[in-house]
Amino acid sequence: MKRSEINRALRDMEKMIDRCSFKLPPFCYFTPEEWNEKGHEYDEVRDNMLGWDITDFGMGDFDKVGFSLITLRNGNVSMDKYTKPYAEKLLYMKEGQSAAMHFHWNKMEDIINRGGGNVLIGVYNAGREEGLADTDVRIHSDGREYTVPAGTQIRLCPGESITIQPCLYHDFHLEPGTGPVLLGEVSMCNDDNRDNRFYLPAGRFPVIEEDEPPFRLLCNEYPAADSCAKR
Question: How far apart are the first and last CA of the chain?
Fold first, then answer.
């Protein structure tokens, strides 16, 4: 992706967050220049990859497969100093975008429509050799439990949510004509490096073509605290 595309996507997400009257923590507003002055007091942000993020799932077509997100809080399964067993994210999707079909081996999460249009979440149980099983799926949504056929798209209108159990394949699409969506994710500790199983091969972070300065640093771009202290 071009840096200009990333900047535009992050600005669009920030506008949607304001539209939904959601308030972000201070570190989300640090400029790249300010990050150059931040020392070890912000190691939790660096180590747990908090902050702005972009994914195109390695497919190079962000407007069709991908979304913008912010990790607001997270523990770290690899570092004992971070004991939070939970995580929280915001995800922003515009019409025409989708998220690749995937499941998590360990993480349970709630996906919440925080505002905007309607999101459609397709669900399958993981079957043999981690394929898509042709079995009914048990759904837990806002205190209601029910069963749907494999491949059903669960519609979430603003305020509605669904619980995604481990080994439950799911993808996201927006209902055409309903507008962009701000999603919330409340989950167990998030580990994108080891806990994602994509149905089709997919990547995580985009390859960036630097055609303009960054609006915000992404969560995998922060300068090390030691380098900041030497400035």
Answer: 30
